[in-house]
Here is the input.
Amino acid sequence: MSDLPRKAVTRTVKLAALPLGIAGRATWGLGKRIGGKSAEIVARELQQRTAEQLFRTLGELKGGAMKFGQALSVFESALPEEIAGPYRAALTKLQEAAPPLPAATVHQVLAERLGEDWRDLFEEFEDKPAAAASIGQVHRAVWHDGRQVAVKIQYPGAGEALLSDLKQLGRFAGLLGPLVPGMDIKPLITEMRDRVTEELDYELEAEAQRIHAEEFQGDPDVIVPDVVHQGDQVLVSEWLEGTPLSEIIADGTQEERDRAGQLLARFLFSGPARTGLLHADPHPGNFRLVTGPEGHIRLGVLDFGTVDRLPGGLPAPIGRALRMTLEGDAEGVYGHLCAEGFVKETVELEPSAVLDYLAPIIEPADAEEFTFSRGWIRGQAARIADPRSPAHQLGRMINLPPSYLLIHRVTLSTIGVLCQLGATVRLREELEAWLPGFLPED
Here is the structure.
């Protein structure tokens, strides 16, 4: 039906070539070292070549491979500049686009999902997609009542491709670890596999989008497009005009970067408090800067396929742990982490060491305003990734309860985007307003 390479054998061969390529480059690197090149230079070249092959392959495959690539792409700011620089453009492209389905396939899918008379639903329909991503692509159209709309169409076989890719990627996750220092790749892939069913269910996505659109209707800072029509594997929403966040990252003014960063932080913390849902796919392709009358800028939010359901907002223990760490209460924060399951009963840690581990990470919450930068996040990644450092050893003994896994990933991803933006953000202001437990009276 489509050119999406979704057959198990085809996709497995493409993905299997990744570890083989990595092994081949390792042999090449050994030869270079014997030939006189320094270990540091060889390691840098190996990482560059591995990254180039990885993101090229993931972009071609869409499905779970593409989604994994998008998840990794927000962490490129943690990589050393000499490594991140050469393939940053490829990562940005991965966030915004993928090879599209042909028009004939799109028409066939619409006929199957909306009925043979699907064209009667639209005054106009553009065959060329406006965006193509991991499990679907978006077409611009005009609804029969004259509204500009975005038509999201799920790729045929997307579910099969998602599961197949993530299973295959999980087998060699350890080989990809060096691409993002300090991050364990395997739990990221496992968590994605656990949420495949939800990701593919456009009814659930439409529900989450409607909740957000209703809550943020008329909001001065955030705009969410309304759902116009929802069918099996087709979702029609109002069209949202704006500048993709990836373009702001590449070419935006500092004023735009700061505004985008502040609104992104505001949405991260206010969303769960206001809707009971956490938008769990914060890569730049899902956000727009929308300029309204008199130049007022709002953050446009798209794609609610993955959400975490948090009826009471973000968990109060997070706010309390942050507050106690900022207060320098080593005994208090250690006892709190033990009580909440972040330190297993079989593990005993020095409270002052735990405080030393946490304090640099939460530095952005300690200042009236903080400038996120690639340099800052690289320093944090290096500190945690270095096997010789106390932070690395302690980090391996901290336990992350399952209910916090998605929150943790979303927070890290958002911080990664803020660092890509180089935004100056009043983060503490957002924490005080929206994070339960952060203020003493909570």
